[in-house]
Amino acid sequence: MKVFVVGANGQIGKHLINLLKDSKEHTVRAMVRKKEQADAFEKVGVETRLADLEGSVDEIVEAAKGCEAIVFTAGSGGHTGADKTLLIDLDGAAKTIEAAQKIGIKRFVMVSAIHAHRREKWSSIKHYMVAKHHADKILEQSGLTYTIIRPGGLLNEPGTGKVSIAEDLERASIPREDVAQTIVTALPMENTFNRSFDLVSGEEVISDALNRI
């Protein structure tokens, strides 16, 4: 499967690109905003396209043509205001979903946030949770073959390869590397199609945890 990664220059995105680049089952194309980011990926043999989530849907369409799956792991980042969160995490996701529909890419994996589906658990950064919640809803209603992964607090520690996956989990943390590995493992797994789940560190091997959802 040729996988188009939106948010390739982010911290999860970089882990994901490396895993897909080294995979025997998949190939990868990175979407980035800046030429210097594209140059850095091209130097290590990763195909790239320049496109901006604040640009047009057609810009994303052109960048994604020829791919068979999309992973959306873009985010405005914690240093930006609510306006950027809405433009990237919500409208950027919506545009990417629309682009997938336009060119017939059916497989779509969304990186969301733990408890995004449970308004009663939103205690802080509510604008971020609103953006994630509604981006997920748009994907669920899109007709695409989706998987929505809602990771807990993100860590830069090395991955353990062991996770806990369920519809509802208590808030906990997880290395970004394990989130990326969960995405790659879930991509072809039919029992993850049209499913959404929370994801934190746990005691179960990633493939086993995904098999049980």
Explain what you see.
By secondary structure, the protein is an alpha/beta fold. It is 38% helix and 24% strand. Strands 3-2-1-4-5-6-10-8-11 form a nine-stranded mixed beta sheet, with helices on both faces. It has a two-stranded parallel sheet with strand order 7-9. Helix 1 crosses helix 6 and helix 4 packs parallel to helix 5. The longest helix has 22 residues. This is SDR family oxidoreductase. It holds the Pfam family NAD_binding_10.
Topology:
Elements: E1 2-6, H1 11-21, E2 27-32, H2 35-43, E3 47-50, H3 57-64, E4 69-72, H4 82-103, E5 107-111, H5 126-140, E6 145-151, E7 153-155, E8 162-166, E9 173-175, H6 176-186, E10 195-201, E11 204-205, H7 206-211
Parallel strand pairs: 1-2, 1-4, 2-3, 4-5, 5-6, 6-10, 7-9
Antiparallel strand pairs: 8-10, 8-11
InterPro entries: NAD(P)-bd_dom (IPR016040), NAD(P)-bd_dom_sf (IPR036291)
Pfam family, one: NAD_binding_10
Protein name: SDR family oxidoreductase
Q: What is the radius of gyration computed over CA atoms, rounded to a whole number of angstroms?
A: 16 Å
Main beta-sheet strand count, sense and barrel state: 9 strands, mixed
Helix content: 25-40%
Instruction: Report the uncertain regions.
Output: none
Which class of secondary structure composition applies to the elements?
alpha/beta
Q: N-to-C terminal Cα separation, in Å?
A: 23 Å
Q: Tell me the total number of β-strands.
A: 11
How many helices?
7
Query: What average pLDDT do the residues reach?
Result: 96
